[in-house]
Specification:
The protein is α+β, with helices and mostly antiparallel strands. About 45% of the residues lie in helices and about 20% in strands. A hairpin with a 3-residue loop joins strand 6 and strand 7.
């Protein structure tokens, strides 16, 4: 064992004594140091590129998210389309005939009456005109489908459109009509021009605009700039509450009529008694005359 140890020590001593040993060690250490320096510089140079790549990827993700949010917002806005006036936004108009609302005061109800041939009609919509009474473009208040285009002898040219949530709109008193039956129309597109009609001739050039929920007319002024899903029909609760009272009134009228009948009989009987007393005092010719009148 001791001999082996001595041999290994001697071999290491021989290696150390070689001239090339220490230069080789120096070269190996230098190579390692140089490799470390080069690796560090390469890593330092690649650092900004990696950071820039990561930043670009984050920007792309943000852009994709913003585009998705914008698309979702657009979809929501389309679903929640609001009711607009059937005219251009920059056009100054006025409502010359209101919707006849049973709950409104007497003055507003008077403004909702249409006079035609000495008769008054309750308006199911609003009449829109300009101060100068000149023709103007009529636009779709909501996106939808044109379901009817017709010419009415009293209302003039009429366009009917169907929308979501059971809402429909009517545009009457049109001069020219650009809409076609069965076509899809977007909100704000021109469907015709305002004109005159027979029923609302006192309004001059105007458009008669109606909004209906499930076929029942509603007041357009209540829902302008409101989402389409907020358009609701009139409350029928009051009408239902009034029905029993109406029946009671009819019964009371019938009872009063029945009560009045005996009174009329009594008065007739009194008249007959009076006639008989007069007949007893009058001459026979007067009696015959009274009998003839009774038969007549």
């Amino acid at each position: 064992m001791e001999e082996n140890k001595n041999v290994s020590k001697n071999s290491w001593k021989r290696i150390f004594k070689k001239r090339w040993f220490f230069p080789a060690v120096y070269l190996a250490v230098a190579a390692l140091l140089l490799t470390g320096v080069l690796w560090y510089q390469n890593a330092a140079n690649q650092g900004p590129d990696l950071a820039e790549d990561m930043e670009n990827q984050l920007d792309d993700l943000r852009d994709d998210q913003d585009a998705q949010d914008e698309e979702d917002a657009t979809t929501v806005m389309q679903q929640q389309e609001v009711l607009e006036m059937p005219v251009s936004e920059d056009l100054q108009v006025e409502i010359v005939t209101k919707f006849y609302d049973y709950g409104a005061d007497a003055e507003e109800q008077e403004q909702a009456l249409i006079s035609h041939q000495n008769k008054f009609y309750q308006s199911d919509g609003i009449a829109i005109s300009t101060a100068d009474h000149e023709a103007f473009d009529v636009t779709a208040s909501l996106s939808g489908t044109v379901t009817e285009v017709k010419q009415d002898p009293l209302l003039g040219n009429v366009v009917k459109m169907e929308h979501e949530h059971g809402v429909s709109t009517y545009y009457a008193s049109l001069d020219e009509v650009f809409a076609e039956e069965g076509k899809e129309v977007k909100q704000g597109e021109t469907i015709g021009t305002a004109g005159q009609n027979t029923l609302g001739q006192d309004n001059g050039v105007h458009v008669h605009f109606e909004v209906r929920k499930d076929g029942t007319p509603v007041n357009p002024e209540h829902f302008i700039n409101q989402p389409i899903n907020k358009i609701v029909g009139p409350d029928k609760g009051e009408e239902e509450d009034k029905e029993p009272a109406t029946e009671d009134e009819e019964k009371q009228e019938e009872s009063s009529e029945e009560n009045e009948t005996p009174t009329e009989d009594d008065s007739s009987a009194e008249d007959e008694n009076t006639t008989e007393s007069e007949d007893n005092t009058d001459a026979e010719n007067d009696t015959e005359s009274s009998s003839a009148m009774e038969h007549a």
